[in-house]
Design goal:
The complex is a heterodimer of chains A (242) and B (253). Chain A has nine helices and no strands. Chain A is an all-alpha fold and 242 residues long. In chain A, helix 7 runs antiparallel to helix 9. Chain B has 253 residues and is α/β, with parallel strands linked by helices. In chain B, the strands form two sheets. A six-stranded mixed sheet of chain B has the order 7-8-9-3-10-11, sandwiched between helices. A five-stranded antiparallel sheet of chain B has the order 2-1-4-5-6. In chain B, strand 4 and strand 5 form a beta hairpin. Chain B is globular and about 50 Å long. The mean pLDDT of chain B is 96. The chains are: A mainly alpha (242), B alpha/beta (253). At the A-B interface, helix 6 and helix 7 of A face strand 7 and helix 3 of B. The complex binds adenosine-5'-diphosphate (ADP) and magnesium ion. Adenosine-5'-diphosphate (ADP) binds next to strand 2 and helix 1 of chain B. The site of magnesium ion has 3 residues of chain B, from helix 1.
Chain lengths: 242, 253
């Protein structure tokens, strides 16, 4: 292969890398806060029929199940189960083609990018929600009790005492998710969004060589090196307490 | 003397397990009350009910004349959130395992609550916090994080944190039980100094001689009831009830 072709390939892939990086960043920006809301929903204990429980005495299993049924928690359990239990590729398809097949709304090309960001954000929010939940549940109950006795309300307790400690604890699994996300951005090829992998495949097909795919692989690897480096720095910056 | 705390006919069950059975207790201003008893006798649960971490099934809970909960005959009816939040400002609790906020420095652990909850000015709160740290012998540690301190130092910080809220009454739940034996002395000394300053306190402890020396009133609990109570010297050296004698004999070897 000529040097000029290789350079041209690298240049095109570089443009694609920009698109991949944009998906990566926007997905994190949207899915991390959304994940917190999903985690709250998943941890909701609101049970509107709790008043049916008899005080201080046992009751039948069926009545107990009905009285302690928490609808919000149930809804978010389903959300998490569906988004973690089906392929992200399928979810991207559904979000991109869904509006047309379900409602007959014509799909614009601009929507392709929006669909990618919605698909990734909604999917990653489910994973982040479970990471947050495990982080929150790992905080000793004594932290809540100390704050409560000092007069902190629920919101103050969460944002001042629990959330900062949660952030430190969840960094390792969040790093895992971020690294997976770098590679997952390539799934946008299924709706032909021109990120790096889509472009690499196109060039590869046109020039009948796997060189572009190898270069893309190297780029993903370097991208992840940067992500791992940044996450390690953040982890170190939180090491001032245990 | 004004009554700071009054608990009347408090009962509490966990499922079928009756943990507190008709407990009554009152603490006057400046009084130091010790609670002793075997593990599982309900001492912590009683403190947790008094500090609103746990709800009583039945009984009255009154702080300086203000009802936190009032029995309607069959169950305890708790006051509204705002009243309870008001009542929380009257007491402090020191935990067995400190429960300091690990992501805050010593100084922030002590200063955030009075500023955020007590709505007091930063200058005033910081001055008082430094004074408290000086009293606790921790002036050098104000910028340290809890993980950099010994257990005894952490417990002194947690006492300072509770005192910074200027509570009318301070509860201690086995404040030395999580400490190495050589560190318990420093905490007991701090509590003795507070007693000398007429701080109103309720102390759950297994340190019998400390309880005898520091308190004006001692309560022996077993199986969720107050078996015997009265003058500390009298109760520890001349217990009347068989159960009290059996319990104390285990400490006298
Ligand atoms: N949250 C809880 N749920 C169920 N049982 C509990 C709970 N807390 C305490 N208990 C039970 O209540 C009894 C008294 O416990 P506790 O008040 O901790 O005793 P003490 O502090 O005197 O050792 C024990 O039998 C304990 O198992
Ligand atoms: Mg206990």
């Amino acid at each position: 292969m000529e040097l000029s072709t290789l350079l041209n390939t690298v240049q095109q892939l570089f443009g694609g890398l920009g698109a991949s990086a944009l998906i990566f960043i926007l997905t994190l920006v949207f899915s991390m806060p959304l994940g917190l809301l999903v985690a709250f929903g998943r941890m909701s204990k609101w049970a509107p029929l709790r008043f049916l429980l008899p005080k201080n005495q046992t009751c039948s299993k069926a009545l107990y199940a009905i009285a302690t049924f928490a609808p919000i928690q149930f809804l978010f359990k389903i959300y998490i189960a569906v988004l973690r239990g089906t392929p992200l590729m399928l979810q991207l398809f559904a979000i991109y083609y869904g509006p047309y097949y379900l409602f007959g709304i014509p799909i614009s090309l601009d929507y392709r990018f929006v669909a990618v960001i919605i698909g990734f954000s909604v999917n990653y929010a489910a994973y982040f929600a479970e990471i947050y939940r495990s982080g929150i549940e790992s905080i000793p109950v004594g932290q809540y009790e100390a704050a409560t006795v000092l007069g902190y309300n629920k919101v103050q307790t969460f944002f001042r005492i629990i959330f900062p400690q949660m952030c430190k604890r969840i960094l390792p699994p969040v790093t895992n998710e971020a690294i997976t996300l770098v590679k997952d951005t390539s799934l946008a090829f299924v709706i032909s969004y021109p990120e790096m992998f889509t472009i690499a495949k196109q060039i590869s097909a046109a020039q009948t060589t796997i060189m572009p795919l190898i270069v893309a692989g190297v780029f993903y690897f370097i991208f992840n090196g940067v992500v791992a480096f940044v996450m390690e720095r953040i982890e170190k910056s939180m090491n001032y307490y245990r | 003397m004004q009554k700071i705390l009054e608990i009347q006919h408090c009962s509490k069950k966990f499922g079928e397990n009756e943990v507190l059975k008709d407990i009554s207790l009152s603490v006057a201003e400046g009084q130091v009350v010790s609670i002793i008893g075997p593990s599982g006798s309900g001492k912590s649960t009683l403190l947790r009910c008094a500090t609103l971490l746990e709800t009583m099934d039945n009984g009255d809970l009154i702080y300086t004349g203000q009802y936190a909960a009032k029995s309607n005959g069959t169950e305890a009816i708790y006051s509204d959130k705002a009243t309870l939040q008001q009542i929380r400002k009257q007491f402090g609790l020191v935990f067995q395992n400190f429960n300091l906020f690990p992501h805050y420095t010593v100084l922030k652990n002590i200063t955030e609550p009075p500023m955020l909850i007590g709505k007091r000015t930063k200058a005033e709160v910081y001055e008082e916090a430094r004074e408290l740290l000086r009293k606790m012998g921790l002036s050098q540690k104000e910028n340290a994080y809890p993980c950099e301190l010994s257990g005894g130092q952490q417990q002194r910080v947690s006492i300072a944190r509770a005192l910074a809220m200027k509570p009318k009454i301070l509860f201690f739940d086995e404040p030395t039980s999580a400490l190495d034996p050589e560190l318990t002395g420093e905490i007991l000394q701090v509590i003795k100094e507070l007693a000398a300053e007429h701080m109103t306190m309720v102390i759950v402890t297994h340190e019998m001689s400390f309880a005898r020396d520091v308190s004006n009133h001692i309560i022996f609990m077993d199986g969720g009831v107050i078996v015997e109570e009265g003058d500390p010297v009298q109760l520890i050296h001349h217990p009347q009830q068989e159960r009290t004698k059996a319990f104390l004999s285990r400490f006298q070897q």
